[in-house]
Write a structure and sequence with these properties.
heterodimer, A: mainly alpha, two-stranded antiparallel sheet, B: two-stranded antiparallel sheet, Sedlin (chain B)
């Protein structure tokens, strides 16, 4: 018994290596349909028993068959067990011992006598249940096949097949719960049925149709041991959903249920437009919730679908996310268990690429390779393209349908191995990327406080117009620019202007620069520098106590005075705007005559001017540097003061907090 | 690496709780509640005063090494909230959330 049970287990797992001939495949699938498989693929035991009895084998051998095929071990007939059982029946009928080895032999089809439903099946076109219809139609077709000479396909057969198939196709409604969603849901399927019918052009076409459904189609048969579907070109299990899926499969041209076809895309687009007329806009979460709840899927499943499809986690659906969600719902309604993470063909990158390449070829291979090779850069492109970021962050999601899902997932994985594996590393990459991007502004208030504490950086000093010629045009320009220039922060005193000093002033210049005396000949210059300081202090943010200002002012006086002295005409030019801003016309007039005075003077020492200018430029640079140093020192001092004050504040606050409960109690 | 992760609702019942399987798992649950009590105490004592205080306290969570942990948790929590099919107050059943939490739990063996 142990041997047999282990053999049964082996049979269950080894069923994958049974090769069924095409006729056998069709026949068996018809019988399978006859036995009314339910959603999980288990066959109705009464029907199976009936079938077994119809084989007219002795009860003993029937028991043996049941044991060997593994159904006894499992407790029910799954598809694999069923097929093995049929093979064993055939073996038994042809006189071979009921053993696993005989299964591999080339056997004729098992014969069943007295199946009541045979005649029913043939004319089962308008049945009550859609399931029976599809099953019966296919079964009828197969019965018809088996009763006719095996392998002879006459045109008449084909036409009847088409008729039989077409009828149930049309009769089959979409899953009825979908009805509130309006009739269009049927359209993808009815569309599907037409190419399906078109395929029935010849024997070969039919056979290829039968054997076409890929292992993925069989994903619904998620009981252990059903690997026959993968290893062999399994005949379509004619259950309710499988026929629909077959149509979808033929639609999708590459046997991938997770791929969105053109018609589906159109349909989704229309649905999107009913919810949100702008295709680029988002559907809000609540709106989407109401819409998808109409599909009557249970809420946890809808929640899971949402998690899968909202790739950028924004609580709303873009058009692509909507398509993904819709497609997942459609698949789920068809009986596909929900995947743990988005299949590669459903990912937003893929969808976008599909849009770009509308004429996708039928074969799956190049597309998958495309995905692999370019998945990463494409997703990176997407992140540039779309405003919401695309990432698949679904890792390790539970299956709500338990074992079913797990096994179907394994099947999917086996069938989509290449494209799946690049997923996790990309996911992680994008995960980290998207994690940082939308959450980037999660700074605590401390950071914000720090930011506010940072002074707005002082604007860089304007490059002074270092021209050495006192052209009145330049002056005018400067004057014009003066007012806006000042407002935008002519901070530093215009030390740079290498003016055209007169000889006397040049002689003054080195003296004055070396000795920082505040000996300013003209009072108005002093005034001007004073005003300049004011401007400076006003413009500088966070100018604290007066003493520093004065300190600055003295220093500045020194620096500016020299410049004033040296750079008469041009230092006056920058001064002029200052004067304009703060004071006015009186100084203007005062400023004007002094330039007039040096003019005649300048005519004389023309030769010395170049060297003088160089020196003045150098002096000006030095002055600049000194003022820079002074200002940076000041800045650091202020920062320190700020920190100290902050700390004081914090300590005070803690003290206050400590005292408060005391006060309250 | 956490030993126990819990998300407690406003009404003090756990929306999500998971701990490393040990005998004194209940102790972890108690600890969770007591730590929340400490936070509440701090908050209530500050009262109307400055957000600084509160921030300083919660600052323990952010700047510490486990900063990543809290942030990750919080991110996944907001993802769960974003899901329109999630009703606030429901126990959290999101697989993504579970995944994140598993990643953060102490991995023993």
């Amino acid at each position: 018994m142990d041997q047999e049970s282990s053999a049964a287990a082996a049979a269950a797992s080894g069923a994958s290596f049974i090769s069924l001939s095409e006729h056998e495949q069709m026949y068996f699938s018809g019988l399978h349909g006859l036995c009314q498989a339910d959603a999980s693929g288990k066959l109705s035991s009464s029907k199976v028993a009936e079938l077994l009895k119809a084989s007219q084998l002795p009860a003993e051998s029937l028991h043996k068959v049941t044991e060997v095929c593994g159904a006894k071990h499992l407790g029910y007939f799954g598809t694999a067990q069923f097929y093995v059982a049929l093979k064993l029946l055939a073996a038994a009928q042809s006189g071979l011992p009921v053993r696993l080895e005989s299964v591999t032999a080339n056997l004729p089809l098992p014969r069943f006598v007295g199946l009541k439903t045979e005649s029913e099946m043939r004319y089962a076109a308008p049945p009550a249940a859609a399931a029976a219809a599809a099953a019966a139609a296919a079964a009828a077709e197969l019965q018809y096949l088996s009763t006719t000479a095996a392998g002879t396909w006459s045109p008449a057969d084909r036409s009847t097949f088409r008729h039989l198939e077409a009828n149930p196709d049309r009769k089959e409604p979409w899953s009825p719960p979908r009805s509130p969603c309006s009739s269009p849901p049927r359209s993808p399927l009815t569309h599907g049925s037409y190419p399906h019918a078109k395929q029935r052009n010849g024997v070969e076409a039919q056979i290829t149709y039968e054997s076409q459904p890929s292992p993925r189609v069989m994903a619904q048969h998620s009981f252990p041991g059903h690997h026959a579907g993968k290893a062999t070109a399994e005949p379509p299990a004619v259950t309710q959903t499988s026929s629909e899926r077959d149509q979808q499969v033929t639609d999708e041209c590459d046997n991938d249920p997770w791929r969105i076809t053109e018609e589906q895309l159109e349909y989704y687009t229309n649905q999107f437009k009913t919810l949100q007329p702008d295709l680029d806009a988002l559907i809000l979460g609540g709106v989407a919730k109401n819409f998808f709840t109409k599909s009557k899927l249970p809420i946890p499943e809808l929640s899971h679908i949402w998690e899968l499809s909202d790739v950028n986690k924004d609580g709303a659906l873009t058009f692509h996310e909507f398509c993904i969600a819709f497609h997942l719902i459609v698949a789920r309604k068809n009986g596909y268990p929900l995947p743990e993470s988005l299949p590669p063909t459903l990912q937003p990158g893929f969808l976008l690429r599909e849009e770009e390449i509308p004429d996708t070829p039928g074969s799956a291979e190049p597309l998958i390779v495309f995905e692999d090779a370019e998945a990463r850069p494409s997703q990176m492109d997407l992140s540039v393209k779309d405003s919401p970021q695309k990432s698949t962050r679904k890792q390790g999601l539970e299956e709500d349908s338990g074992a079913q899902g797990g096994i179907s997932l394994s099947q999917e994985e086996q069938t989509l191995p290449s494209s799946y594996r690049p997923e996790p590393p990309q996911d992680l990459d994008l995960h980290s990327r998207t994690k940082t991007r939308p959450r980037s502004h999660s700074s605590t208030s401390i950071e914000e406080a720090m930011k506010k504490a940072e002074e707005p950086p002082t604007p860089p000093p304007r490059p002074q117009k270092t021209h050495s010629r006192a052209s009145s045009l330049d002056l005018n320009k400067l004057l014009q620019q003066g007012a806006p220039g000042v407002k935008s922060g002519w901070l530093l005193p215009p030390p740079a202007l290498p003016p055209r000093p007169s000889a006397s002033q040049v002689s003054h210049f080195p003296n004055v620069s070396e000795k920082p005396q505040s000996k300013v000949p003209q009072p108005n210059f002093a005034d001007f520098s004073h005003f300049k300081e004011e401007e400076e202090s006003a413009l500088k943010p966070e100018e604290p106590g007066p003493q520093s200002r004065f300190g600055l002012s003295t220093e500045d006086l020194q620096s500016t005075s020299t410049q004033d002295v040296s750079g008469m005409c041009h230092s006056q030019a920058p001064q002029k705007p200052v004067r304009r801003k703060y004071h006015a016309e009186s100084q203007d007039s005062e400023g004007l005559p002094p330039p007039a005075v040096p003019f005649p003077l300048q005519d004389k020492p023309v030769q010395k001017l170049q060297s003088k200018q160089k020196r003045t430029i150098q002096m000006a640079i030095r002055k600049n540097r000194e003022t820079n140093a002074v200002l940076t020192r000041l800045n650091s001092e202020l920062q320190q003061q700020l920190k100290v004050v902050h700390q004081e504040r914090v300590t005070l606050e803690t003290q206050l907090e400590l005292l408060r409960p005391l006060a309250s109690t | 690496m956490a030993v126990c992760i819990a998300v407690i609702a406003k009404e003090n019942y756990p929306l999500y709780i998971r701990s490393v399987a040990t005998q004194n798992e209940l102790k972890f649950h108690y600890t969770v509640h007591t730590s929340l009590d400490v936070v509440e105490e701090k908050i209530s004592s500050v009262g109307k005063a400055l957000g600084d205080q509160r921030e300083l306290y919660l600052g323990l969570l952010y700047p510490t090494e486990d900063y990543k942990m809290f942030r990750k948790l919080h991110n996944s929590f907001t993802d769960v909230m974003c899901n329109p099919f999630y009703n606030p107050g429901d126990p959290i059943q999101s697989k993504a959330f579970n995944g994140v939490v598993s990643g953060m739990m102490v991995q023993t063996g």
